[in-house]
Amino acid sequence: MSSKDLLEIINAVRAEFNEKPVRLNDFNNRIADELEGEHYESFVVQNLNNTTSIAYSLTIDQCTLIGMRESKGVRKNVLAKLKSLAVPQSFAEALQLAADQAKQIELAQSQIATLEPKAKALDVIADTTNIYTIRDCAKTIGIGERKLIQLLIDKKWIYREEHGRLQPYADKVASGVFVNKASPVVVNKYGEEKVHLHMRVTAFGLTRITGLVEKIKGVAA
């Protein structure tokens, strides 16, 4: 389920109990806080006023954790709604769900078999699938590129090398926030071959950085 759909469910139930709706920024902060360390994908959604926002793809279990933060009455109704969405409504739906899950498992196993040797050979050198530059992230989140870089430096997520190139700290690479992409081989005037590593942000990293920025904004407010 998308976080946008979950927010609509929560706000609809809140309205029934005469509670104020949850704002999108507050909701994204809640997701980042509640699911810290868990994997969840982010994507961009188009709003009715032609602006864009960050949304997340969540499992039912993750939605349940987030819904647990609501007041007693709201929580009970939200969890009941999530439960109804998670349970097949007919035998035909159950069969289709089982078939879909079997297909997903088969696809995942095939991808693992294909990618595992490459991952071992490349180590932290990643391809360009679903990775972003800092500039891309800044545009998506809606923050100045220089401001985002300084924030990540201050929080010890990245640092500048002697020649000014940005590099991630090892723990952030290990946790999957950043990867290093190798440049083509460059031969200098002395005939020496060099390869530079360019820092890139993963899709998971984009969600983590978005959560960090939203949390900082919430503190500043």
Q: What is the typical, i.e. mean, pLDDT?
A: 79
Strand content: 15-25%
| Main sheet: strand order | 3-9-6
Percent helix range? 40-55%
Please state the CA-atom Rg, rounded to the nearest Å.
21 Å
**What's the number of extended β-strand segments?**
9
The best one-word shape is globular
Number of helices: 9
| Count of the domains | 3
- Helix-strand makeup class: alpha+beta
Largest sheet: 3 strands, antiparallel
Task: Report how far the terminal alpha carbons are from each other.
Answer: 29 Å
Order of helices and strands: HHEEHHHEHHEEHEEEEH
Organism: Acinetobacter larvae
Domain Antirepressor protein C-terminal: 110-212
Protein name: Antirepressor protein C-terminal domain-containing protein
GO molecular function, one term: DNA binding
Q: What order do the helices and strands come in, and which of them pair?
A:
Layout: H1 3-16, H2 24-34, E1 41-46, E2 52-57, H3 60-67, H4 72-86, H5 91-122, E3 131-132, H6 134-141, H7 145-154, E4 158-160, E5 166-168, H8 170-174, E6 178-182, E7 186-187, E8 193-194, E9 197-202, H9 203-220
Antiparallel strand pairs: 1-2, 3-9, 4-5, 6-9, 7-8
